[in-house]
TrEMBL record:
PANTHER family tied to this protein: FLAVODOXIN-RELATED PROTEIN WRBA-RELATED, FLAVOPROTEIN-LIKE PROTEIN YCP4-RELATED
Matches recorded under Pfam families: FMN_red
Keywords in alphabetical order: Flavoprotein, FMN
GO molecular function: FMN binding; NAD(P)H dehydrogenase (quinone) activity
UniProt domain Flavodoxin-like: residue ranges: 4-146
SUPFAM superfamilies to which the protein is assigned, alphabetical: Flavoproteins
Protein name: Flavoprotein WrbA
GO CC list: membrane
Length: 183
């Protein structure tokens, strides 16, 4: 069982591509919420066994897609049993606009982690916000709660800005390192 799981939903493949890139550089396991908002028993078991859980979803209409919310609501039985108490959590979200209300999604993910009694890991990176900054730089969207990715609405899954993917990779590695320090 992997210590770190990225549980994600992706309607059109962009968030999946980002999660795959992040998982490739760490030992994180990917758990994909299906189009009906469901996980199978094995996937629930993988979440249960993980030391850390990273929430990942695109921002749709200013928050997570309904499939991710269905997953979150399905964790309420675990919430009641404090089953995820003291797990380590993080989150990232991807959307078409530079802002696009992604912060709402991240704060909601952080709230979900807090409801479970989790330990939330911040992004821990300075923003790249000078005149020289471009979209190959780290954290050009200036996140701090978690990682932000902006994929232009007409971009394929192979055209996600490089710097944003690198930002997610660094963040996932940070969460992995923190888990190792805690244990
Ligand atoms: C139903 C729907 C709602 C969306 N709402 C937003 C939004 O609120 N803000 C934004 O910036 N982009 C929004 N988008 C754009 C998606 O976030 C963007 O295309 C993202 O890359 C999709 O990721 P995915 O391929 O993993 O589904 C929306 C897209 C859809 C389909």
């Amino acid at each position: 069982m992997s210590k770190l799981v990225i549980v994600f939903f992706s309607g059109y493949g962009h968030t999946r591509k980002i999660a795959e890139a992040a998982a490739a550089d760490t030992d994180a396991l990917l758990v994909e919420i299906d189009a009906n908002g469901d996980l199978n028993d094995e996937q629930w078991q993988q979440l249960h066994a993980a030391r850390g859980i990273i929430f990942a979803a695109p921002t749709y209409m200013g928050n997570v897609p309904w499939q991710f919310k269905k997953f979150a609501d399905a964790t309420s039985a675990l919430w009641a049993k404090r089953a995820w108490q003291d797990k380590v959590f993080g989150g990232f979200t991807n959307s078409a606009s530079f802002n696009g209300d992604k912060q709402v999604t991240l704060i909601w993910m952080q709230t979900l982690a807090a409801q479970h009694g989790g330990i939330w890991v911040s992004l821990g990176l300075l923003p790249a916000n000078t005149k020289q900054a471009d979209r190959n730089d780290i954290n050009t969207l200036g996140g701090s709660i978690g990682a932000l990715i902006q994929t232009p609405a007409d971009a394929s899954v192979d055209e996600i800005p490089h710097g944003d993917i690198e930002t997610v990779k660094i963040y996932v590695a940070r969460i992995s390192e923190i888990i190792n320090k805690l244990d």
